[in-house]
Specification:
Elements (H helix, E strand, L loop, with lengths): L3 H10 L8 E6 L8 H4 L3 E8 L2 E7 L3 E5 L5 E5 L8 E7 L4 E5 L6 E5 L18 H9 L5 H6 L9 H11 L12 H20 L44 E5 L2 E5 L6
Helix pairs in contact: 1-6, 3-6, 5-6
The protein binds a DNA duplex (16 and 16 nucleotides) through α5.
DNA sequence: CTTGTACCCTGACCGC
DNA sequence: TGCGGTCAGGGTACAA
């Protein structure tokens, strides 16, 4: 569910817990690989994001690593209101609690005592991510460009929604081989990626529905980028750029919506 | 090395 | 109303 903009919004919303100390932990899912003993008494040095991962830096050392996958949520709240599917509750000495809500139990929580070290690709909303970098990644691969964008080892944080949206902005067919893109197309794709991600962050991400598994930012009813989606979830609707009918194809088991007329 | 498939889970939605 | 099939913001462990 959450992609880079949603996780970024979440991490910003969690900043108030920096400097607090973990007072108690309840775990309601045996699949989670952490234990209360490992966390109680640690203080929170920082809260940051890497790709789609949420990292809670612990004092004196280590990171609590959380990935929300398709349906997970992290909520910061002072209320006792019981959210269904809460699999872990971290109570802080400030009185706040962090709730890990994970309906499908696809999300993961783990402790990295030496710090998070997963080899993820470049962060796409930094100055280091240039068209030249993207070109090098694309030219080294013959995989369809949609799948390259989803490969977290190459670029960290893009998911199914923003991959489709970036390709629409760039006017590129998602099935194109990565190494077939020329310089102009790479530049358009770079602009598409960076613009869609930054705009989505400004909109606090995309909230797709009202179920318990739907992402929503803290302190707001929902993100609002869903109101700006050009292709994602718009199969059989008209392309707002050229009027043709949006189509859906399956690539590597995942849907991609695109405009067959103006994405070439 | 790369590419494809099954799988992990649960809920929403659609057609019958 | 109920049932079965399909789909979903993701990643991993395999097989080929």
């Amino acid at each position: 569910m959450p992609e880079l903009p949603e996780v970024e919004t979440l991490v910003r919303g969690l900043q108030p817990i920096v400097g607090t100390t973990i007072a108690a932990v309840e775990i309601h899912d045996a699949r989670l690989t952490v234990s209360a003993d490992q966390l109680c008494g640690a203080s929170l040095r920082d809260v940051r994001r890497r790709g789609k991962y949420v990292l809670l830096g612990l004092e004196p050392h280590g990171d609590l690593v959380i990935h929300l996958r398709m349906s997970g949520r992290l909520c910061l709240d002072r209320s006792e209101s019981e959210i269904p599917y809460t699999r872990m509750t971290i109570t802080l000495d400030s009185g706040d609690s962090v709730y890990f809500v994970n309906p499908r139990r696809l999300g993961t929580v783990s402790l990295c005592p030496e710090g998070f070290d997963k080899p993820l690709g470049i962060e796409p909303v930094t100055a280091e991510f240039t068209a030249v970098v993207l070109e090098a990644l694309a030219h080294a691969s013959r995989t369809p460009i949609k799948q390259l964008l989803l490969d977290q080892r190459k670029i960290a944080g893009i998911g199914n929604i923003y991959a489709a949206e970036a390709l629409w902005r760039a006017g590129l067919d998602p099935r194109r081989r990565s190494n077939s893109l020329d310089g102009e197309e790479i530049s358009a794709l770079h602009a598409g990626i960076t613009s869609v991600l930054s705009e989505a962050i400004d909109q606090l991400g995309t909230t797709l529905g009202n179920s318990v598994s739907d992402y929503r930012p803290s302190g707001a009813a929902s993100g609002t980028y869903q109101n700006h989606l050009a292709v994602y979830g718009r199969e059989n609707k008209p392309c707002e750029r050229c009027g043709a009918t949006i189509r859906r194809v399956i690539q590597a088991g995942r849907s991609t919506c695109f405009c067959p007329a103006c994405q070439t």
